[in-house]
Amino acid sequence: MGRARLLSVARQGSGLKIRFDKLGIVIALLVAYGALGASFAVLKPNRIMQGEAKMILAALPAWAGWGLIVVLFLAAAASLFRTSPWLKLVAAFAALVALALAIGSAASFLTPAGNTYARVSPASGFWLLLFAFMLLAADAITRLKPPPWMRVLFLVLTAGGVGAILLSGSWNGLSIMKEYAGRADVFWSEAGQHVRLALGSLVVAAAVGLPLGILCHRVAALRAGVLNTLNLIQTIPSIALFGILIGPLAWIAATVPGAAEIGIRGIGTAPAFVALFLYSLLPVVANTVVGLAGVPREANDAARGIGMTDRQRLFQIEFPLALPVILTGIRIVLVQNIGLATIAALIGGGGFGVFVFQGIGQTAMDLVLLGAVPTVALAFAAAVILDALIEMNSRVLIGARSA
């Protein structure tokens, strides 16, 4: 009897298998290379010259360096196996916080006392580790399948954490923050201009594109011509389109009374705004057409059966049912415009691109990051918020149909 029990336990033990996570293996390899094979920070004699790369243990005090490595490898171990998504999320959060604190500490540790010219910047290892643990966090959130409000809450908490670190002064020694310190007023002015370009062009495109999309849906003869024209505009490179608009807008400013007074000029905000507006039209119009075409025929038939007019059917039946698809087009436009607004700086349109192109001209990569990092963060936040809005709207529609 005892022998049979031993055999049973042995069989159960032999059936136990360690389950590895495929994405976790990739993340663990990235972490191993980023922590042990790549430099963590770069010490430069000034903002322009090349610097000396430092590994983690050389960039931090011994206790902080070993502590960071332990945290990174524990978090990587959590990613390696098929465990609870909450455990993976907590591990990613802990690693990201450790990285954020460590890079600020590296700036203080590496900068020589009294040297106001030396600059410390994150190196390839830091960016690789940041990418690995952001990927782990995104994978964990995807597996948790949180409701829309929780995804927005995660975004708010992340923004709050970054804001707390910025306000604490932990990153003040980093080169990118020194670039910001010398341009704080200009930075927020250009940030406002960037948002105005991206959002303003979206609002005007929605005001024009939604009625145009409805018209194309109702009048099939117009559909192909309008969509083909907008497709053609979409194929023009952004810099080329900015250049094409300089001549006509300069002519309008010179010949139309009052045009220059309201801001229409060959260079500056006007061509940037018009170009972003033109790029925005195709996603708005096309998604409006697709959304309206996808409205079930039964819904329209039922609306006609109860005596609804065409106008009532459009605003009470068709448009609400097509709204998730239309919002998807608006999401595409907003993220696209946030990125394209960077190029507007080439023709005097302002925005975060001012820092990007100034940094390229001065070979100051931290100044480039001062424009690039907020642009990426803004686009990411816009995508998360609009994705949540689209999902909430879809759930409302599903609930209404089931009711």
TrEMBL record:
Q: Which CDD domains match?
A: TM_PBP2
* Spans traversing the lipid bilayer: 20-43, 55-77, 89-111, 123-141, 153-177, 197-220, 232-252, 272-293, 314-334, 340-360, 367-390
Give membrane topology per the record.
Answer: Multi-pass membrane protein
- Compartment(s) where it occurs, according to its Swiss-Prot or TrEMBL record: Cell membrane
Among InterPro entries, the record links this protein to: ABC_transp_perm/SBD, MetI-like, MetI-like_sf
Pfam families attached to this UniProt entry: BPD_transp_1
Principal cellular location given in the protein's record: membrane
ABC transmembrane type-1 domain location is 191-391
**Source organism superkingdom:** Bacteria
Q: Which UniProt keywords apply?
A: Membrane, Transmembrane, Transmembrane helix, Transport
By sequence similarity, the record places it as follows: Belongs to the binding-protein-dependent transport system permease family.
Q: What is this protein called?
A: ABC transporter permease
Q: Which organism is it from?
A: Neorhizobium petrolearium
